[in-house]
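Quick log. Single chain, no ligands specified.
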Amino acid sequence: MLTTEVADRVHRLERAYVNCYVVADDDGRVLLVDAGLPGMWPLMGFALRELGHRPEDVAGLVLTHAHFDHVGFAARLQERVGVDVWAHEADHWLAAHPYRYAHENLRAAYPFRHPASLRILAAMARAGALKVRGVRDLRPLEDGEVLELPGRPRIVFTPGHTYGHVALHLPERDAVLTGDALVTLDPYTGLDGPQIIAGAATADSELAMHSLDRLVETGADLVLPGHGEPWTGGVVAAVTEARAIGAH
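-> predicted structure:
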């Protein structure tokens, strides 16, 4: 199988150290969370078929944020399948220009300071990280909103990594999809464990640390990040570790 069921009817698709998620409902519809990199487009098609779904079963795509490695096949899905794409309004411009993101630190320095990141960044490049198309005509998300989409996700506004970053809480499945608000692998340092992403790709690390409080409010047992393995030790423990690691 291309996917792994990481929670009740929540399936993880990973390539090049980037995660996408498929959230299914009993009515046969599915929600996609994040669009990874362009190289994940055919894999997502195969994965949906393996799970018994067709393209027309996709009820929507929600972007946790609009960096290039989460927007990957969004425009293609929108054009080919006619799927609506949601993102917080503060990230709509970035979705159309996914390389023009705010970041605190010089990106070029990280591979020298953290050589473990080289294998990750190289894998991302092979998966199309350098040729991501922007996506437009997005539907807005609001903090606290519950979407009438598979899993009935509740939007949790978690700015900092980008100014429009959101997490998706699935209360009925005791899981929170954290995007890059909290990851278990930082592509820019190669470090494992719960943490926020380095300043090479984070707009405001102090704000990102404050947004961890919003994740704690969910009380979820399962943390499903945008990069790295699922964390099964509860969101409170994950945030405690992330605060101990701090910003890079």
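The mean pLDDT is 97.
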